[in-house]
Design goal:
The protein contains 1 helix and 8 strands. It has a 6-stranded antiparallel β-sheet, with helices on one face. Strands 3-4 form a two-stranded antiparallel ribbon. The protein is of the alpha+beta class. It starts with 21 loop residues before the first strand and ends with a strand. The radius of gyration is 14 Å and the shape is globular. A hairpin with a 2-residue loop joins strand 3 and strand 4.
Length: 138
């Protein structure tokens, strides 16, 4: 990947809902991001990053992967919409003032629908995982 750019060039979200600090790597089928958690994050409550934020972070990592690839191919970034979230496992809530790493991988594609698996980890420990069905705008 090239030098780090503003993540909002790859995703449609804007503050205060941006749940990615950095795009670490991206290919056509897989991406990894980092999120530095602060007490200013709207999903951090009583020192912990809560479930809605974790799921939004996974979805935005998928959006960043798609956005990165469309920008790389000189096309307009498409918006995505979560169709379903399944197989959710939250093992531990990350703490404020730490960093999480999120990896998404496209397991299947059917027309404009991506079936992804997302995993959130911290210091090598899996914190959460799920699968999502994401519809991309035409």
């Amino acid at each position: 990947m090239e030098q780090q750019v503003d993540i909002t060039s790859y995703i449609p979200q804007r503050e205060p809902i941006v749940m990615i600090s950095e795009l670490c790597s991206a290919t056509e089928k897989k991406a990894t991001t980092k999120l530095h958690l602060t007490e200013k994050n709207i999903f951090c409550v009583e020192g912990e990053f809560h479930e809605p934020g974790i799921l939004e972070n996974i979805a935005q990592t998928a959006a960043a992967m798609t956005g990165y690839n469309t920008v790389k191919n000189k096309k307009a970034v498409k918006r995505g919409f979560i169709g379903s979230i399944n197989n959710i496992n939250i093992f531990e809530l990350p703490l404020v003032n730490t960093t999480i790493e999120t990896t998404v991988e496209i397991e299947n594609e059917v027309m404009n629908v991506h079936f992804i698996k997302g995993t959130v980890s911290q210091n090598g420990n899996t914190m959460a995982e799920c699968t999502m069905k994401i519809f991309l705008e035409e």
